Amino acid sequence: MDLEKSEPRRLYQVWRGSNKFLFGGRLIFGPDVGSLFLSTFLIAGPVLAFCIKILFIIKHCLRAKQNALPWYPILIVAVVLTMLDIFFLFLTSSRDPGIVPRNSKPPESDETIEINTPSMEWVNGRTPHLKLPRTKDVLVNGHTIKVKFCDTCLLYRPPRASHCSICNNCVQRFDHHCPWVGQCIGIRNYRFFYMFISTSTILCLYVFVVSWYITFHRKGGVWKAMSADILSDVLIVYCFIAVWFVGGLTVFHFYLISTNQTTYENFRYRYDKKENPYHKGMIKNFKEVFFSRIPPSMNDFRAFVEEEEVMVMEPTDHNYMGGNTHSSKEKIDIEMGTKFGEESGLMLPDILRNLEYDDIEENMKYRQENEINDSEQCIGPIDQESEGPDSSFEENTEERNSFTVEAKTNSEELNDTVVSEQTTSSVQS
Fold first, then answer.
1. C-alpha angle with apex 90: 235 to 95, nearest 5 degrees?
2. Which of 12, 65, 101, 137 makes a 20 to 30 Å CA pair with 208?
3. Which of 185, 184, 189 is nearest to 19 (CA)?
4. Whose CA is closest to 135, among 166, 163, 112?
5. Is residue 19 within 8 Å of 169, Cβ to Cβ?
């Protein structure tokens, strides 16, 4: 009976990262997407209270037959800023930040370096006999940049890329993983992230200033107005605290953009002692971030994958650092490689792998038994010394000594023969 053919699966269904997808892979979020709802509430909640406050003021002006026209633009601006803020938040969170596709196997042999360097390491697991350098040099704008090999994605990371431990992906121009957005910030969403934090800063300042204006223009003094208008007091305190957070981020990222750095590079002091190869001047740096074309995604998450690719995408256990037990021979294979003798001309690993320790242990046991027999024979003549003459004691002593010498000589000859035979067979193989 023929086995039923499994239904084709899309890339997002077998994706090995920690991302979460919506609408059939059209939207991609980070694993902590729940923080997106918290951020939306922290933005929309205070603004909703502010808009209700403005509506009450408009209603009061209409009842008192006063001019309420200036309050309408204030309400409209607050609504527009809030919609823009949430829109940029959604664009930042639901967009591919620039994920580098994983490799199903390590780079080909022509991409590896064939010389022995301290950075050489054996890639255990899938390819136990493939030697790869941990880093390699790449030329960027006339500067030599070292790129690292990612053991998870099985690739050399592009310049400025890094592996996010939360999303479990390598991201181009990795800036950081934002917990408030629930997504990595990379080359494809950094522009929207900066627009999000800058819009949040403007919105906080706007609500703060208008709330202060309402409080100051109440009759009866400031303290009396503050005690009578609790909502404005709460908005003032909330916006004062929030503006330090989002405002500080806006200023910090303004500095990063003007110097063409990422948060990851800045925190690691990458360019404190050497020149930044990506710095093009302040104006060109801003053009690169805000007016350059956003590169297309390197992953088509809705594309169907072949059955072999599905097997590759299935999670595998990578015990590179431990957790699995190896025999002594397997450890030698991992550390020395099976082609060690061919590359270096030394046959030591082969000798170690083919050496049989059982014969040596038997020889050691045989020698110990001979020594025990010798000691027992020494005790017998001493006990018989009182019964027999001195001549019989001397004869027994000579026989015992000659037997011990012959036994040691035979044991040494046997050990030399075993070792020489094993060494000869190893060299011939």
1. 150
2. 65
3. 184
4. 112
5. yes
Q: 45-101 pLDDT, tens per residue? A: 999 999 999 999 999 999 988 888 999 999 999 999 999 999 999 999 999 999 999
Q: Which residue has the tokens 């990458």?
A: 270
Bridge partners of 164, per DSSP, are: 169
Q: What is the pLDDT of residues 163-203, one digit of tens each?
A: 999 999 999 999 999 999 999 999 999 999 999 999 999 99
Q: Residue 383: exposed, middle, or buried by beta-carbon count in 10 A (0-12, 13-18, 19+)?
A: exposed
> What is the three-class DSSP state of 28?
strand
As a whole number of angstroms, the distance between CA 206 and CA 202 comes to 6
**Distance separating alpha carbons of residues 217 and 232, to the nearest angstrom:** 12
Alpha helix (H) residue ranges in 184-269: 190-216, 222-228, 230-259, 263-267
Report whether 393 contacts 385 (CB < 8 A). yes
Q: Which of 150, 153, 170, 178 is catalytic?
A: 178
Pair of tokens at residue 159: 């310049």
Per residue in 2-15, pLDDT (tens digit) is 445 578 899 999 99
Chain segment 375-392, per-residue pLDDT in tens? 555 555 444 444 444 444
Which residues touch 29 (CB under 8 Å, ≥6 apart)? 19, 20, 21, 22, 36, 93, 94, 182, 183
Question: Which amino acid is residue 257, in one-letter code?
Answer: I
Q: Are residues 246 and 200 in contact, defined by beta-carbon separation less than 8 angstroms?
A: yes
Q: Is the C-alpha dihedral spanning 225, 226, 231, 233 positive or negative? A: positive
51 is an active site residue = no
Find the angle CA(360)-CA(361)-CA(367) to the nearest 5 degrees.
Answer: 90
**Helical pair 34-63 and 71-93, crossing angle rounded to 10 deg:** 170
Match 């980070």 to its residue by tokens.
30
- Calculate Rg over the CA atoms of the chain: 39
Q: What is the pLDDT of residue 210?
A: 95
Contact 207, 161 (CB under 8 A): no
Cα(192)–Cα(375) distance, integer angstroms: 89
| Bridge pairing between strands 143-150 and 183-185 | unpaired
